[in-house]
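Session log. Operator J.P. requested a structure for one protein chain; no other inputs attached. Running the standard single-chain path with token output.
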Amino acid sequence: MSLSFDPDTVSLPVGHFIGGELVAAEGAIELRRPSDGKVYAACPVAGVDIVDRAVESAKAALKSSNWSNVRPRERTKALQTWADLIEAEAETLARIEALCSTRPVGQLVAGDIAITAEQIGFFAEFADKEGSELVPTDNVSLGMIMSEPYGVVGAITPWNFPISMAGWKLAPALAAGNAVILKPSEMTPYSAVFMAQLAVRAGLPAGLVNVVLGDGPTTGTALTGHPEIAKISFTGSTRAGSAIMENVARTGVKPMTLELGGKSPQIVFADADLDKAAMAIAGSVTFNAGQACVAGTRLIVERSVAANLTAAILERMKAVRPGPTWDEATQYSPVISERQRARIDGIVKAAVEAGAECLTGGNVIDNPGYFYEPTLIANVDHPNPAIVEEIFGPVLTIQTFETEEEALALSTHPTYGLASGLFTSDLSRTIRFARKLEAGTVWVNRYSRSRDHILPTGGYKRSGIGKDLGREAYHANRRTKSVLISL
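Structure written below.
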């Protein structure tokens, strides 16, 4: 059966989701489909009153369900049931997401949704396997480090991978015994609401997962500054992360996990498998039209193989064909909005004006929707905007080197340190670079995450603080106290 669908036939769960119920609200933000630019809905904006209501609902759910203190295996079973239901409803969830976002329906079913269900199951298993511990003390005392949930956790997710990012935030927080108030991006709000509805259908206590819709200045500010939200998790731009830190500092003190922007390098040595490198590098900037914080947008290649690698990348970039997200055959995504596409185009034009050479692309694609050509830029140096700024689009720059020291120097960015790629057959070089690269993730002879959910992700410098995924994400949703008992 084909996954393709008519976008005008999709039913959306419009409204906030609080206490297990859809709360109708008047739409305030006009929403357009990225694939054709047509208006399809309007997103409401939750103010302080709606956020307060969600917080009270979360607190009441924690108290009535005893979620934080039930047998840990019960939390595991409930979350696993939710993961199974997400998989069972994958087609409906994919249609909601594909309609609103830049994610093609075929990639959603095979990728985003299946992986999100896996991740929920992964974190579910932590509930009855991680906890308090005894620690060495003298013979007349007993030392313990007790672990407990925070209570109510606030989470804010971006528009580029709405389902995946919701799973990143919800799964570890719920497994750790918390309730969550989630604010998805106002540009892609409805898949998160449907996921929350599925959580209640799966048997999670109503009110444990609440979704408030709205923008950053109003809803995000109310959420992150709320005195009864004990911890914040955010994925998005460095600028927005800085604003959240400022708001939290102004209204109180609470822990935060921030996964922010990136300008990630991909370093290719002459001894690498160039075909494999070309496929990975081209894929990293054409997948989701480069709209990923970890996108490897800076190619740094050994000069002796630069021409051959560039030719192979160009061939792959020119081969992509854009299409609407509701067509199962689509592999190349639109940009999220006209504003974002104009920003991408403006940076590319500024890069060329500053002396760069555009080898392919560099133009808006003339068809319905917000599509931009895969773009390859050469003759760039550090002051060039294409090197300095996070473009968040399908734009790759090329720089060359002759020595390891030069490659390492070019790879270092003054602002970002989220991810990096390294292509080489030299194991010793791999270890040297893995130690020296200033990035929270180093991929070697690949440029993509795997389904090994145990590997955490997070950045150095202004790319963020704390980790998503892995054991670290679970522990980030619990706090500890030291207990010392005299015997």
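Operator note: Residues 265-453 form a domain with the Aldehyde Dehydrogenase; Chain A, domain 2 fold (CATH 3.40.309.10).
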